[in-house]
Amino acid sequence: LLFSTHHCLRLLPSPLINMQYSRISRMLSSAARPTTAALLSPLSAPARRSFAAITISSEDEWIEQMKSPKPLIVDFHADWCGPCRILGPKLENIHESGDVSGKVDLCKVDVDALPELASQFSVSSIPAVFLVHEGRVKSSFVGVVPDEELEHFFMEAQALTEA
Fold it and tell me: Lesser CB count within 10 Å: N end or C end of the chain?
């Protein structure tokens, strides 16, 4: 048996039916017809390079990333870790800011997905953040630190590119 969205929603109280039906209709109609602005935006807007964090999901990706001449800030974290969820966005915001972006790579490593890599760095508590350059750990910290210390950590990484 096939049911339309309207039939499935009849099981809900009537105010919820109207609200859900309207929301689904809006989603379907907007998905089906992109706006002219959306179609033209890639042509009219200047290209902006994104310096998003690099998620390391395998040993091979890590080996490839280690070949980069840029300093690496490596964030060992886990999805279930509360302090990691606080620190992660702060690291990403500083990384994407003007002076640092493009000069330093931010790598994110999930300790549950890559426990071998975490053990290579002797990670026993998370979040653990390491500054790696030319295959060697230059600096590190564990836990959530004040924003000023994070900025200093990124400035230390940037100084390695200028040395």
Answer: N
Catalytic center residues? 81, 84
How does strand 105-110 pair with strand 54-56? parallel
Angle of CA points 158, 50, 102, to nearest 5° = 20
Element (H, E) at 153: helix 147-162
pTM: 0.68
- Reading the chain (163 residues) residue by residue, the pLDDT tens digits are 343 333 333 334 444 444 444 544 554 454 445 454 443 444 433 334 456 788 999 999 999 998 989 999 999 999 999 999 999 999 999 988 867 767 899 999 999 999 999 999 999 999 999 999 998 999 999 999 999 999 999 999 989 887 6
Which amino acid belongs to residue 46?
P
Cα separation, 71 vs 149, in Å, equals 18
Residue 125 near residue 143, CB atoms below 8 Å: yes
Task: Tell me the sheet residues that pair with 133.
Answer: 136
Q: Chain centroid to CA 102: how far?
A: 16
Nearest to 76, CA basis, from 133, 134, 136, 140: 140
Other beta carbons within 10 angstroms of residue 117's beta carbon come to 19
